[in-house]
């Protein structure tokens, strides 16, 4: 099991291209940051018809990752109960490669070491169906602080989508995610979180529109689903 710690910063979906370019240029010049290129991510979120996973604050995702010059890869991810405060998201996460465009729940259940979450997926897994998608281009940087703390900086730009009665309904998605990858002493002193917040403040000097966001991409999808389907 991994504990995911990331600071999420949202931007208006209609942000002008010049402002986006200013952010990218700032990150390209940021001392300690190394550009890691772009990825195209297609994400399908699954739940039961009565949204049993959402009620248990769990998220089940199938993701295709593509980048230039490399074959794409399918990944399945389970995220369980966590917390979000002032944009900082802390969650349990299990991620595995799969052979193709389909969930492989057996290995995911076996890997999940939270009994309640594993039982939920075991009991409800046969009923899950795709509920919505998030599709976006992710631009990446790896940042290393002076004490060795490693952070992945991701700029995501795309859409959340729900299909109903043959019509695709979308909302824009634009976010910056600062994910703590590694920190001395497993971040027991919370220095890693302080570095995430310092990075966020630095980015706000370029784009004051950036604001901490406690809403995950999965929650955005469920909200759009409710708006479109009414439940």
From TrEMBL:
<dbReference type="Pfam" id="PF01928">
    <property type="entry name" value="CYTH"/>
</dbReference>
<dbReference type="GO" id="GO:0050355">
    <property type="term" value="F:inorganic triphosphate phosphatase activity"/>
</dbReference>
<keyword id="KW-0378">Hydrolase</keyword>
<feature type="domain" description="CYTH">
    <location>
        <begin position="2"/>
        <end position="228"/>
    </location>
</feature>
<dbReference type="InterPro" id="IPR033469">
    <property type="entry name" value="CYTH-like_dom_sf"/>
</dbReference>
<protein>
    <submittedName>
        <fullName>Inorganic triphosphatase</fullName>
        <ecNumber>3.6.1.25</ecNumber>
    </submittedName>
</protein>
<dbReference type="InterPro" id="IPR023577">
    <property type="entry name" value="CYTH_domain"/>
</dbReference>
<dbReference type="InterPro" id="IPR039013">
    <property type="entry name" value="YgiF"/>
</dbReference>
């Amino acid at each position: 099991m991994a504990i995911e710690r990331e600071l999420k910063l949202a931007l208006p979906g209609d942000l002008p291209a010049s402002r986006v370019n200013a952010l990218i240029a700032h990150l390209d010049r940021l001392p300690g940051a190394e550009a890691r290129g772009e990825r195209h991510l297609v994400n399908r979120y699954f739940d039961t018809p009565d949204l049993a996973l959402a009620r248990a604050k769990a998220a089940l995702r199938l993701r295709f990752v593509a980048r230039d010059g490399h074959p794409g890869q399918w990944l399945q991810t389970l995220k369980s109960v966590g917390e979000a405060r002032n944009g900082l998201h802390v969650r349990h996460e299990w991620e595995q490669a799969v052979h193709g465009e389909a969930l492989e729940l057996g290995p995911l259940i076996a890997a999940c070491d939270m009994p309640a979450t594993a039982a939920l997926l075991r009991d409800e897994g046969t009923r899950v169906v795709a509920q919505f998608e998030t599709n976006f281009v992710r631009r990446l940087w790896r940042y290393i602080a002076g004490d060795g703390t490693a952070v992945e900086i991701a700029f995501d730009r795309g859409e959340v989508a729900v299909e109903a009665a043959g019509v695709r309904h979308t909302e824009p998605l634009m976010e910056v995610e600062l994910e703590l990858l590694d920190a001395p002493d497993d971040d027991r002193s919370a220095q890693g979180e302080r570095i995430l917040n310092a990075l966020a403040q630095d980015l706000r000097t370029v784009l004051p529109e950036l604001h901490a966001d406690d809403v995950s991409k999965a929650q955005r999808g469920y909200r759009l689903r409710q708006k479109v389907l009414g439940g």
